[in-house]
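Journal club prep — side note

Before the paper discussion, L.F. wants everyone to see what a predicted structure for a comparable chain looks like in token form. Sequence:
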Amino acid sequence: MKKIKIAITGNIGSGKSSVAEIIEGMGYEVIKADDVSKDLYITNEKVKKRIIENFGNESYIDGKLNRSYLAEKVFSSEENIKKINEILHPPTISKINWLMKKALEKKDLVFTEAALIYEAEMDANYDYVLVVAADDEIRKGRIIKRDNTDETSFWGRDSKQIPQKEKIQLASFVIENNSSLDHLKNKTKFVINLIIQINFQNNLKR
């Protein structure tokens, strides 16, 4: 049986985290890029050093990440966003690849949930990319409610990502998330079972 690596991605408010939770509930391992990068902020000395060099000593207080300060600095300019990505993306991708390799020693399928699969050019590392998509107004409403923010903030954050339409065109599979959680569960399970069937058929042809 071929070992399969699957990425889960989608623009802000699409519901990719919900899809990841559903897949975890099916018994699969989902590596979460956000968790990996948050860990690197604290445990990777090279990352810490470069962040302090680029954004100041205030980035850490008593060895702990000063999240509010760093977020304010990073999102103040496109240049700073580029800097933090250059610092974090390589070690994050390296750690994810290592975690996938370990997971595939025991399982035939492993998943990675990451917002920036295409932006960070990670898609080549995967057999399939699942894009979770939702109408813009629905995504906007979810983020305004979840983060207690406003429309301007939503569009500002969304503009930092590749447009949803482009991701849909690039995707191996698309899961639309415009309805209820039950509908999302059914669609997710359908797509995962379809991938398993495709993989099984491909193995028979070998």
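L.F.'s comment for the group: The mean pLDDT is 93. Keep this in mind when we get to the figures.
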